[in-house]
Amino acid sequence: MTSGIAVQDNADKLEPPAGSEPHGHGNQGLARLALGAVGVVFGDIGTSPLYAFRETFAGHHKLEASDANVLGVLSLIFWSMMLVVTIKYVAIIMRADNKGEGGSLALLALISRSGSTKARWTKGLVLLGVFATALFYGDSMITPAISVLTAVEGLKVVNQGFAPFVIPIAIGILIGLFAIQSRGVGKVGLLFGPIMVVYFLVLAVLGIVNIMAWPQVFAALNPYYAARFFYDDGIHAFLAMGSVVLAVTGAEALYADMGHFGRNPIRVSWLFFVLPALMFNYLGQGAMILAAPDAMVPHIIRNPFFLLAPDNLRLPLVILATMATVIASQAVISGAFSVTQQAIQLGFMPRLRIEHTSASSAGQIYIPAINWALMIMVCLLVLFFRSSSNLAAAYGIAVTGAMLIDTCLVSVVLFKLWQWNKIAASVLLAAIGSVDLAYFSANLTKVPDGGWFPLLMGFVIFTLLTTWARGRALMIERMREAAIPVPVFVRSAVNSATRVPGTAVFMTSSAGGVPHALLHNLKHNKVLHERVVLLTVKIEDVPYVDVVKRIWFENLESGFFRLVVRYGFMEEPDVPAALALATECGAKFKMMDTSFFLARQTLIASSRPGMAIWREKLFAWMLRNAESAMEFFRLPTNRVVELGSQVEI
Predict the structure, then answer these.
(1) Is 577 helix (H, G, I), strand (E, B) or coil?
(2) 633 near 575, Cβ under 8 Å?
(3) Within the chain, how many helices (H) and strands (E) appear?
(4) What is the rounded CA–CA span in Å between residue 331 and residue 253?
(5) Residue 104: what pLDDT?
(6) How far, in Å, CA of 483 to CA of 154, rounded?
(7) How many CA atoms lie within 13 A of 291 on its CB side?
(8) What confidence tier does 112 reach under pLDDT thresholds 50, 70, 90?
(9) Closest by alpha carbon to 243, among 137, 146, 171?
């Protein structure tokens, strides 16, 4: 791979890339996984009916609630779901998985591994994929805030006296949600699955009951009404797209969360359960407005979702919707965990502590640093914007930006990897791309009203990701410049140093040259162990590496060995376990007779070409705050020696 997409310098492969084994979800069965998917993956898009239709008529760019406008908006919602969610993500992009994993980085790794892209395009594709990832983090902050706040605001529909308590209740619910993440997404999904099944059934029933009052609303499924909407009033229709797109937010979470539950459970849940329930509810909201007397319409459009239910059922609906919005937040939180793990392993983020929460499903993880950082940002968003309508202005631009980038990346997949018929692929991409571009352009009009926030967060996170990737590549390059060839070192060292019993494992990021830690140890202690292992951990651009291809071995003579241990970007490195597989390096490795030597680099910013000084200082700060290699590689704490060195970049 190029442009730094590697944790351990994948440029100089010692042999062809290791094979991989498909992602596994244990023996959980389709029904169980589909239930978990309903509980986690569809929470985001499932709670869009709370605010998407409302914001079109009561948001920052208000539409008149005429028959033509209502039918036009409903038609836009339906065909957006069909084009963006069903065709683009469920039918096409979810096929472009990287050994079972989804998300922009997995798609980028799939493209890069194929080697089918021209060199001049590679860097641009990398930057697009990284920016899509940065935008996803912005979405992960806004989704919990707007979802939970919208549901809790339903209390004001029940009784206006609840208004002062809306924000404190929302903050309390969000803190509770983030507090339970350490229990694992699988357990959370099974807990939330039955709740979401009930929620979607309620959506469908409320919609059908109101459709019966004005069944002509089914005409909105005809694309003629969407086209007529634009023909009659193109400017207002274009502005309305900034709110209509809220109906498909969460589509990217289907792809990012694919590693948690698998492709087929997500497809089955969407096509046969979630999509029908959502459309019944949207049509019901439209039918309620179309059937209502003119005097009641202004009241209804302020909160059509909760007014679908009769008075005595509104409080239970608020409670159910609040639980559903908690689950909506879960979709992007679990997606953020998956994306973060991929970013760490692919070399775009420093090491962070990752906890696996399931023994049977490797994709279910928990990252404390990301969890608590998201919680703080989400609570600050609620306190700053204070209402769901204000947050709606900030929502959508991150999602549509990521969707547009996904379309660019999948176009490479269609033409280069799958080699589709060029005419058919061009027509399909033109249809999908024009929709994505229109939605993104419409959301740009919301930048002054709050859309600046996800863009700001996206650029900040993009800067962090690219700074880490570039800084790490420069650091490895500088260390390689000063490296001594291993054969030369071995010949000189064995004749001048005293050999002592035991095994010394020197961790090195480069598969060539002598590690700095080895040079420093020989310089200061003037001894060499009987067995010296130069160990490099390489992260391949596949999610999982077959255990039989985990180890690459080379005998360097005189008791020196080189080991390359390969992992996929969704695996957690475990060096002691890998050493147990190394049977060609002499006697079996015993941890009590093995010392691990790590080099801790201190970076010195310089005017050498490569990066701006401020980025060098930022990289140095990120390096200091990364999780130690000892914990990341699961090294025994009482067998590790760290030796410092200075590197000028």
Answers:
(1) helix
(2) yes
(3) 27, 8
(4) 6
(5) 74
(6) 65
(7) 17
(8) confident
(9) 146
Cα dihedral 55/58/60/61 (nearest 10): 90
pLDDT at 362: 53
The first and second tokens of residue 352, run together, are: 């962070």
In this structure, are strands 365-366 and 355-356 parallel, antiparallel, or unpaired? antiparallel
Q: Is 41 helix (H, G, I), strand (E, B) or coil?
A: coil
Centre a 10 Å sphere on the Cβ of residue 612 and count the other Cβ atoms it contains: 10
Task: Please state the φ and ψ torsions of residue 294, each to the nearest 5 degrees.
Answer: -55, -35
Cα–Cα distance between 407 and 595 in angstroms, integer? 49
Q: Which pLDDT band, with edges at 50, 70 and 90, does 22 fall under?
A: very low
Q: Per residue in 368-398, is it b (16+ CB within 10 Å) or e — as a string? A: eebbebbbebbbebbeebeebbbbbbbbbbb
The CA distance from 146 to 386, in Å, is: 10
Coil/strand/helix, residue 591: helix
Give the separation between CA 221 and CA 240, rounded to whole angstroms.
18
Across the beta sheet with 498-507, the strand order is 551-557, 560-567, 527-539, 498-507, 594-604, 640-648
**Rounded distance, CA 123 to CA 135, Å?**
18
Q: What is the mean pLDDT of the chain?
A: 83
**Residue 111: which of 410, 339, 344, 546 has the closest Cα?**
410
- Phi, psi torsion values for 387, nearest 5 degrees: -150, 155
Here the tokens at position 325 are: 């919005």
Q: What is the pLDDT of residue 188?
A: 60
**What integer pLDDT is reported at residue 279 of this predicted model?**
97
Q: What is the DSSP string of 54-116?
A: HHHHHSSSPPP--HHHHHHHHHHHHHHIIIIIIIIIIIIGGGS-BTTB-SHHHHHHHHHHHT-
3-state secondary structure of 22: coil
List % helix, strand, coil for the chain (3-state, nearest 5): 65, 10, 25
Give the tens place of pLDDT for each residue, 330-351. 777 877 887 888 788 888 899 8
Residue bearing tokens 């679990």: 334
Backbone angles phi, psi at 358, to 5 degrees: -145, 135
Alpha-carbon dihedral sign for residues 335, 336, 341, 344: positive
CB 329 within 8 A of CB 174: yes
Q: For residues 101 and 542, give the distance between their C-alpha atoms in angstroms, rounded to a whole number.
A: 9
Q: Write out pLDDT tens, residues 193-236.
A: 788 899 999 999 999 999 999 999 999 999 999 999 999 988 98
* Residue 72 near residue 284 (C-beta atoms within 8 A): no
Q: How far apart are CA 271 and CA 279, in angstroms?
A: 12
In this structure, the number of other CB atoms found within 10 A of the CB of residue 567 comes to 23
Rounded distance, CA 218 to CA 282, Å? Answer: 11
Q: What pLDDT is attached to residue 172? A: 94
- Under DSSP, the state recorded for 20 is B
Contact assessment for residue 547 and residue 582, using Cβ atoms and an 8 Å cutoff: no
How far is Cα 641 from Cα 496, in angstroms, rounded to an integer?
23
Q: What domains sit in the chain, N to C, each tagged with a CATH number?
A: 30-113+140-451 (1.20.1740), 482-648 (no CATH)
Three-state secondary-structure class, residue 533:
strand
Q: 594 - beta bridge partners?
A: 503
Highest mean pLDDT among 415-419, 500-504, 522-526, 553-557: 500-504
